[in-house]
Amino acid sequence: MHVTVAHAPSHLKANLGDQAQAVCAPRRLRATAPFMNRFTLLALPATFALAACSAPADDSTPPVEAASEQDAFFAALSTHCGKAYAGTLVSQDTADADFAGASMVMHVAECSEDRIAIPFHVQTDGAWDRSRTWVITRTADGLRLKHDHRHADGEPDAVTQYGGNTAAAGTARAQAFPVDAYSIDLFKREGLDASITNVWTVEVDPDTPAGDDASEAGVFAYQLQRTVAGGAPEDRFFRVEFDLGEEVEAPPPAWGHGDGTHD
After folding, report:
1. At 182, is the secondary structure helix, strand, or coil?
2. Which of 59, 85, 89, 180 has its CA 20 to 30 A from that of 17?
């Protein structure tokens, strides 16, 4: 017997809802099975039976993972690749008297997806000291800052490759690098125990697009700090800032980097 929904007897129509639910609930199906054996609904569309258990379509798009603050910082620093900027000492510790009023230039000289090298050139007593390079690299846990110190012949200084790793998210503009275990051992070995609580901070604003107000270009800053509260024998503060609105001619390579290689 062929029975359509429109012409089904009233007692059959009442059971159509049960029949649809039976598709989703096997226990309900067993309860209505005797009735279904008497009426075979060959004309009932399959979609009617499935309607009761159809889930609404999920057209939501998986959320895109936001870039971390450290990714944003690294990207901002990368916008200055190949550029050089003049700077000045802004801190006033007497230990840095030779740097007071000295000409200095930072040069974002080498850039890759996971490494940025920034030579720091300082002119003292009429001669340029090109011994220092700040190196920032990506790690599995964040960012790392190292100091590559060389002599004029390119040979590494006895105190080199010290620095630290980020211990917090930081911001897109500033990252702090507490001293790492390697550096603590190095400082102790070289008699520099005062430095074992060092914290370095690097700050950077992204490059300003051509035509924008240069006064909004921001700064690049390198800072070293240790405090008595943090375990140092005395407070120490060193900070240099570079005007990112005033690009200067790129200086010669840092010592030991003339061939573009690095250790």
Report:
1. helix
2. 59
CA distance 239 to 224: 6
For the stretch 48-83, pLDDT in tens is 344 444 445 555 655 545 579 999 999 999 999 999
Q: What single-letter amino acid sits at 27? A: R
C-alpha 123/C-alpha 128 separation (Å) is 4
Checking 215-221 for CB contacts under 8 A at 24+ apart, the result is 215/245, 216/245, 217/243, 217/244, 217/245, 218/244, 218/245, 219/243, 219/244, 220/80, 220/85, 220/87, 220/106, 220/244
Instruction: Give CA 149 to chain center in angstroms.
Output: 26
Tell me how crowded residue 81 is: count the other CB atoms within 10 A of its CB: 13
Q: Spell out the residues 6+ positions from residue 5 whose beta carbon is closer than 8 angstroms to its own.
A: 13, 16, 43, 44, 48
What's the confidence (pLDDT) of residue 217? Answer: 75
pLDDT digits (tens, 9 = 90+) for 172-204: 999 999 999 999 999 999 999 999 999 999 999
Neighbours of 156 (CB within 10 A): 14
Quickly list H helices, the chain. 10-24, 26-38, 46-51, 69-78, 181-189
Q: Which residues contact 256 (CB under 8 A, 6 or more apart)?
A: 148, 150, 151, 154, 155, 156, 262, 263
pLDDT of amino acid 61 = 56
Backbone φ and ψ for 245, nearest 5 degrees, come out as: -90, -5
The tens digit of pLDDT for each residue in 79-125 reads 999 999 999 999 999 999 999 999 999 999 999 999 999 999 999 99
Scan for tokens 């639910």, then name that residue: 21
Instruction: Look up tokens 């697009």; give the residue.
Output: 209
pLDDT of residue 207: 87
